[in-house]
Every structure is written in structure tokens, then in C-alpha cells.
């Protein structure tokens, strides 16, 4: 059986959501900063959906969406930072914050990531 996986931008909640069979399985939040850039501070995948690579699919689609919109992204969430360090997103403008890059570089490779294990601190 194949899950129906869909990703949608929810402007009311300022986030991209990943839905599995119509149920929200996770999200990556965004907010505009004073310079009009899109800051991505947090990504979360419900533990019930962990281990499926949904975080990676979600962040990939969100970054592609922002590139298509011609926006500049400020990656703050360690998962988003790590994703962007490992993947080229054509047309995406990235405003790197040094402390976030350093945090991602020093993260334990054995520590679960939101995309793989469903971790993330709930922000309501």
C-alpha cells in the first residue's frame, strides 16, 4: 500500500505542511523578518510518521516553493540548515546565519533528525 503524501503551503499558519492520507504529519514554519526574508525557525514531524523521510520531502518542497516565489530564505532550524548544506536548490537565495551553520556542523550524526525519526519540540 502506498501512502498519499502531499505538501501544501498554509499561509494562515505560516508554514508548509506535509499530509499523509489527508492527515497532517508535520510542518516547517516560516516568518518574515524585518528585511522581508523568510526565516525557517522550526520543523516538526509527528513521531507516528517517523522513519519515512518526510522531513526531507517537506523541506525540499518548501525550499523549492520559496525559490519559485523568488524569496530569500534564512535557515534557522538545524534540519533546514543541514538540508541546504547538502542539497542545491536552483534559484533559491539563502541568507546564511553563521551561528546556525556552526550549530548544524557540530550536531551529532547519530542524533535523530525530524525527517527520519519524528523528533522536534512541539510549538503548539
Task: Walk me through what this model shows.
Helix content is 30%, strand content 29%. It has four helices and six strands; from the N terminus they run ββββαβαβαα. Helix 2 packs across helix 3. The chain is globular. A six-stranded mixed sheet has the order 1-2-3-4-5-6. It has a single domain, classed as Gcn5-related N-acetyltransferase (GNAT) (Aminopeptidase). It is of the alpha/beta class and 124 residues long.
Radius of gyration over all CA atoms, rounded = 14 Å
CATH topology grouping: Aminopeptidase
Strand order of the largest sheet: 1-2-3-4-5-6
Tell me the number of structural domains. 1
As an assembly, this protein is single chain
Poorly predicted segments: 110-119
Biggest sheet features: 6 strands, mixed
The string of secondary-structure elements, in order, is: EEEEHEHEHH
How many individual β-strands? Answer: 6
Number of helices: 4
Question: What is the assigned CATH homologous superfamily?
Answer: Gcn5-related N-acetyltransferase (GNAT)
- Binned, the helix content reads 25-40%
Inertia-based shape: globular
Structural class of the secondary structure composition?
A: alpha/beta
Proper CATH architecture: 3-Layer(aba) Sandwich
> Beta fraction of the residues?
25-35%
Provide mean pLDDT, rounded.
Answer: 86
Amino acid at each position: 500500500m502506498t501512502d498519499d503524501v502531499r505538501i501544501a503551503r498554509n499561509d494562515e499558519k505560516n508554514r508548509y505542511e506535509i499530509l499523509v492520507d489527508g492527515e497532517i504529519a508535520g510542518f516547517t514554519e516560516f516568518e518574515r523578518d524585518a528585511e522581508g526574508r523568510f526565516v525557517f525557525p522550526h520543523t516538526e514531524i509527528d513521531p507516528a510518521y517517523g522513519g519515512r523521510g518526510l522531513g526531507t520531502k517537506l523541506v525540499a518542497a518548501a525550499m523549492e516553493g520559496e525559490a519559485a516565489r523568488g524569496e530569500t530564505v534564512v535557515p534557522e532550524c538545524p534540519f533546514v540548515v543541514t538540508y541546504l548544506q547538502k542539497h542545491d536548490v536552483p534559484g533559491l537565495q539563502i541568507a546564511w546565519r553563521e551561528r546556525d551553520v556552526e550549530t548544524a556542523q557540530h550536531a551529532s550524526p547519530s542524533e535523530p533528525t525530524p525527517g527520519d525519526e519524528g523528533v522536534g519540540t512541539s510549538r503548539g
